[in-house]
Amino acid sequence: MTDNIFRFPAKSEWLTLLQRPALERKDLRNLVQDIFTEVKLNGDSAVKSFSEKFDNVSIDEFLVSNQEIEKASDEVPEDLKNAIQLAKENIFKFHKSQHQEINKIETQPGISCWRESRAIENVGLYIPGGTAPLFSTILMLAIPAKIAGCKNIILCTPPQKDGSVNPAILFTANLCGIEKIYKVGGSQAIAAMTFGTESISKVDKIFGPGNQYVTAAKVLAQDFGVAIDMPAGPSEVLVIADSSAIAEFCAADLLSQAEHGIDSQVIFIATDETVFNKTLKEIEVQLEQLPRNEIARKAVENSRFILLNSVEDAIKLSNLYAPEHLILSIQNPENYTEKITNAGSVFLGNYSPEAAGDYATGTNHTLPTNGFARNYSGVSLDSFVKRITFQNLTQKGLQNIGKSVELMAEAEGLFAHKNAVSLRLKSF
Length: 428
Ligand SMILES: NC(=O)c1ccc[n+]([C@@H]2O[C@H](COP(=O)([O-])OP(=O)(O)OC[C@H]3O[C@@H](n4cnc5c(N)ncnc54)[C@H](O)[C@@H]3O)[C@@H](O)[C@H]2O)c1
Ligand SMILES: N[C@H](CO)Cc1c[nH]c[nH+]1
Ligand SMILES: [Zn+2]
Description:
Blueprint: E1 5-7, H1 14-17, H2 25-55, H3 66-75, H4 78-96, E2 105-108, E3 111-119, E4 122-126, H5 136-148, E5 152-157, H6 167-175, E6 180-183, H7 186-195, E7 205-207, H8 212-221, E8 227-228, E9 236-241, H9 247-258, E10 265-270, H10 273-289, H11 293-301, E11 304-307, H12 311-321, E12 325-329, E13 345-348, H13 354-359, E14 385-393, H14 395-411, H15 415-427
Helix pairs in contact: 2-7, 2-8, 3-6, 4-5, 7-8, 9-10, 9-11, 14-15
Bound molecules: nicotinamide-adenine-dinucleotide, L-histidinol and zinc ion.
């Protein structure tokens, strides 16, 4: 870990040093395109053969049975059930508070405009399970989907080697009221939800994070008329630390995202040389103790450790990178929040570990990665609804804007448009 340490790099180098690790895009797209073509043509049998190829397991029945759900519930320890329940309550509170009342505006006398939300009817939730069973992601997706009132919610998650699904995933899905759980992962799950197969129904929008294959498949799904929440790929965190930061905490926060996958990336920016050096040492110490240290070490190799002169510069660099998660381990972090322009979710101060937001603070952990925090928000209640605009004009309202509409329609050469107004104006 020496060629990814940068002490006071020149500003002209910032963009190059912040490049993210990625698979060859063209290969990835071709692979996913082939999977889509097969699943569209051959439905369940294609999904089955891709599960055999990529998950090394042969699945005859994708839908999880009630018996499997009951068995799973018996296998989850009580204290874990209570923890999931606590997280569920906080996530429910925060997402319920995102509900917006209807706000009718009179743009001119006699003209009212407003928006009303309608739930997206058919939604598909992808729950990652390749290297870790991310049951917490179910809370992040199913809770807002239920609050929004989505009618048909299906869930896909990769099967384990023995063909079962991790019990905590089944327990959490059941707790959130999800009835259709399918043992399908990867791009083949996204393709199945895009086209529909004999056993998996087509959805209107696909949600959820995943590895590069899942993310590329979600991006492709959009070509077939299916919406997606966002490209939420390999996890990232950027930590900014000044002299008030605690090296052990910084190292732990960085490793908490590095352990997600070998393609995860973490960025550490310190403005204090002692904290910088101590954190680098501490990463080595903590890495040794992690069960997933092989994964985390590879991600650390993809990562960047940067020493800069000021917190202001650190924030500028962070805005350029647009991290999924940003931790401000600095004095008075609230003084800097206005300067943050690109980030998925921000954690303030030494006692706000990103891991707390991953599970239980109440915020959503499905967030834009790979620089998409520049133009996407994380999942929220809004992600599960469409907003329909309404307008209501009285006679007086139409008289107030009629002439303007006629003039504009005429100028665009659209006389039927003009006529739709003129006929009414004449009738008054
Ligand atoms: N951005 C976010 O909000 C967020 C949240 C949670 C997790 N994540 C990320 O989600 C990812 C989870 O990844 P994961 O792999 O553990 O689980 P996953 O469920 O995303 O992917 C596993 C699936 O990938 C498919 N696959 C594996 N190798 C393949 C290959 N060579 N070709 C084609 N398909 C293949 C398999 O079908 C497998 O079922 C991690 O990268 C993590 O960082 C992101
Ligand atoms: N950090 C992930 C989002 O990038 C979410 C997660 C789930 N479980 C643990 N972490
Ligand atoms: Zn995490």
